[in-house]
Amino acid sequence: MKWEPVIGLEVHAQLKTQTKIFCGCPTEFGREANEQVCPVCLGMPGVLPVLNRQAVLFAIRTGLALNSHIAEVCRFDRKNYFYPDLPKGYQISQFDKPICVGGRVKVGEKTVRLQRAHLEEDAGKLVHAGATGLHGSEYSLVDFNRSGMPLLEIVSEPDISSPEEARLYLTELRNILRYIEVCDGNLEEGSFRCDANVSLRPVGETTLGTRAEIKNMNSFKAVEKAIQSEIERQAAVLDAGQKVKQETRLWNENDGKTHPMRSKEESHDYRYFPDPDLMPVSISRDWVEEVAKTMPELPEQRRERYRSEHGLSQDDAVVIAEAKDMADLFDAVLKLGTPAKAAANYLIGPTNYYLNENKLDLAQTKLQAHNIKDLCQAVESGKLGSTKAKEVLVELLANGGEVAAIIESKGLAQVSDESAIKAMVQTVLDNNQSQLNDYKAGKVKLRQFFLGEVMKAARGKANPQVINKLLDELLPPVSAE
Question: What domains can you pick out in the chain, each with its CATH number?
Answer without folding.
Answer: 3-288 (no CATH), 309-407 (no CATH), 418-474 (1.10.10.410)
